[in-house]
Amino acid sequence: MDRKPLFGVAYSKSFPEVINSMRIKDITNKLKDPNLANVKVEELAFDVGFNSTSSFYVAFKKIVKITPREFQRKMLHDML
């Protein structure tokens, strides 16, 4: 039995899209953390499971609508 269509129906997204959404949620939490402000965004992307920086940047911009660096600056600025 092929489970892929069932997954797509249950989540209305493909499996990679669901995984990327979860990874982006993880990295947005890390980007909000002032203790991680000096860690490179690319390093955080690899930590949450992305295997390439290009796929990370595309997924992040698609979901969050701004770049990771812009997101981090905005979040850290809002904390002040």
UniProtKB/TrEMBL annotation:
Which UniProt keyword terms apply here?
DNA-binding, Transcription, Transcription regulation
HTH araC/xylS-type domain ranges (all copies): 1-74
InterPro entries per record: Homeodomain-like_sf, HTH_AraC, HTH_AraC-typ_CS, Tscrpt_reg_AraC-type_HTH
Q: Which PANTHER family match?
A: ARAC-FAMILY TRANSCRIPTIONAL REGULATOR
Q: What is this protein called?
A: HTH araC/xylS-type domain-containing protein
Q: Which organism is it from?
A: Winogradskyella haliclonae
